[in-house]
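Human: For the file, kindly provide a plain-text protein record giving the amino acid sequence and the backbone structure tokens, at your earliest convenience.
Assistant:
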Amino acid sequence: MSVTFVCPDAPRKEVPCEWCERYRAESPELLVDGKCDRYCRGVEQVSDAPEINLSNASAGDILDLLELGNPAEPWGELAVEDIPGILQRIMRVLARSESRKHLLAEGSVSQEPRVGINEDGLPAIELGPKVIYGGVADEQIVRRVTSLRTLLVWAAEHNLTVSWG
């Protein structure tokens, strides 16, 4: 699952469907009535507004860091008049690395042993599947917060709300 931060009311324009264009150029035999599939209209609505897509965990961390609601329920909306206050929080977070330290994590690999019985009927220990837990570096947090700042500045300049979910 993921959480996307967007300006839902950003102006949109109609452009040719990217997949239809790709199929037309690379695999015209796959076109259905001149389109990439039977449900495609041949055009899509796009916006110049920035968008940010994060995993639920990353979005929850950012929401927690900026005090933007309950990280366990990563959905919400930010009114235009609230954006300047959040931009100030972002500047403080970016300026002080200690405010981000609680989000840092090192990666690890786990491989749990399992006890089983071998073909001779004797107990045997086998290693289970490897589970790799990725870490989070400070640079990743800064990059995510900076991307959110870009979206918020754009939204403020265009007098638009920001939603996530």
The chain is about 30% helix and 30% strand. Strands lie at 2-6, 12-16, 43-47, 52-55, 76-78, 108-117, 123-133, 162-164.
